Here is the input.
Amino acid sequence: MAIKPKRNLKERQPLEPGITNYFLNGEAPARGGPGWELYVSRHFDGGAAIRATWNEHKAALLTEWIRRHPGRRPWAWWEFDTPRTPIEGCEYKLEAQRLQIGGGLPLHRRKAIWPGFAMGIPIAWEDDDEIDDPPTYESEYAFLKRHGLLTATEMKGGERNERS
Here is the structure.
């Protein structure tokens, strides 16, 4: 008689599609739909539940993401796992920025405001509607390579991955 293996009680629960999309692309789940409660919880617990869920599922999500998008990382990696730099005299750490290789200056370099970033690129620009010299940044591949964060497979793809 075959014996069924005992189910591990800590077995990972599947992610709701809305949360998967949030982790991969940064898009909020549909209001009131599956995953909405976890998404909204970040406003009440300082992001502890959403970060714990990301940590639980990131290995599988990153493996699949990197297979499909070598040299790039999903939104949640940039949000939760990007390298951070301590700020002297402050409890916060500033997320690593992609190198600017051309164009105008971000707003935090012109005014005394806290810099905000999306996927390593500043989100606020002075006169961004009338900018004549739009900013240009290094690719995600170049950022990951500079920080030693590429997988062996991504490094083998080299230049091909840099253009993707």
Notes: Residues 48-68 form the longest helix (21 residues). The radius of gyration is 19 Å.
